[in-house]
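Notes continue from the previous slide.

Worked example: a multi-chain complex. Inputs as given:
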Amino acid sequence: MPSSTKYDQQMGFFIDMQRCIGCHACEMACAECETNGQESMIHIHYVERAVSTQTTVQVCMHCEDPACANVCPADAISKDEFGVVHTAETSRCIGCSNCVLACPFGVPQKQEKAELMMKCNMCYDRTSAGKKPMCATVCPSQALFYGTREEIEKKRPDSVPVDTFFFGEQEVKTKVKIMMPKGSNYLKVQ
Amino acid sequence: MLKLFQTLNRVAFIKATIAALAVVILVFIGSRNLQNFDAALIAYLFGTIFAVFGIAYRYSVWLQRPPTRLYWRRSMQFLFSKDFITYASRSVYLLFRNILFQRFIAYRSRTRWWGHFLLATGCLLSFAITVPLTFGWIHFTLEPGSYEIYNANFFGFKVGSFELGGLISILAFKALFLTSFPVIIGAVIMMKRRVKDGGVIATQSLEGDWLPLVLLIAISVTGLGIGYDYTFLDGRTHQFMAVTHAITVILFLIWMPFGKFFHIFQRLAQLGANLYKIEGKKRGMAVCPHTKEEFATQTHINDLKRVTKEVGFDFTLADGSSHLDLSPEGKRSALAKAHFEARQASGKFFG
């Protein structure tokens, strides 16, 4: 990846899916991101439609040690010096879906006909130019927030950004943080 | 230098050496003990031998990675099974569709497909012509007693003849000039995309994306220069044209194992990935415990559980099941539910 960018490392991505109202504005905005080729990469859906109106929104968490890149047989997924895990290198991706099935957050998507994996790369065309990702700029409930840690702490005094997840005993650390109740250090998923 | 030996992958080194030696042996056999070898092409030969060594080395290292190794073994296992005829014919079909015609790129963008198809076709045809010529496998001789009939020989055996000045001779002798045009057109189409597409501009790099295109154009233009020289300049600039062309081609050959061009060889794995999916469907689909829907083949999920452990991830849960048993949607829902429960336990959903 080019190193001469205006990527601001003071800025962070914070998500809080309890704030998601399922409006799909992020989905529409995501499709405007040029690095996705006008495909929406964000996931938004009901959690358990039969019993709850709860919706959830999921962007790529940009893991410190990405499972997707580790299981990629084609070395198509890379992480840059800013910690952004990029979507599959198109010349290498063989469309095997290993990353789709191994990502603990269920993020990568397989474009079946194109035999290509695609995923959110934090709107690299925008963030590398010092702008905010599309989804975070349009989210009306700020379930998706892009800014400094100080800004989010001021806005959410009873919450704390957490970057550690446990899936069973497997610890996963991420660049994107989730807003948790004050005092939390991690989120244990199952 | 010491570090180079310490980090040397012995298995890959042995395989690469065998591959390079095999090329040398085939050059001796094909050129009848160098009798038909064109000494003017010696630099190209050494460049090709280096490329073979480098590609075999990198391919071998690549195949040692757990996910790649698994796909390789599974592909071979499924191909050479009782369904050999089905899978072999499927592989041939995929070879044409995905490797020679790169149809999957058309679904990414039609213009991109045209660009890549022209580029790839030009390159593959050029390989098909230059490699046998460089190795001395193909050479041309005059028919004894004739000044008009040329014989084409392969491995020293006559395989055809044609009249000098005829259509076949023009096509045979100017083939590399003809293949240079699709390469140039394709490279220009790909370059245009690289200056117009905002997403590509943000993520591209000079050495990974631009230099390969520049090099391919340089090879084609300098190659055309040789023809221009002997057609219009009576060979006065032959040395210059020949040397600049040789430099660009040898740079290409040396770079092949390291840079973007290695994807030409990696792309073959796509055939294996397709066979893997077909066989997996036959063996049964995995059903997500959350969505209750089929989402992948069970073989894939089982293999992935093994591979993730091999690369340092263990998604086994307390009840003995695995987080990987969930579909992507199931995983996202599990995360949302865990987050909801954590918020609920704290007594505050927001703030």
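Summary box: Chain A is about 15% helix and 25% strand. Residues 11-65+122-188 of chain A form a domain with the Alpha-Beta Plaits fold (CATH 3.30.70.20).
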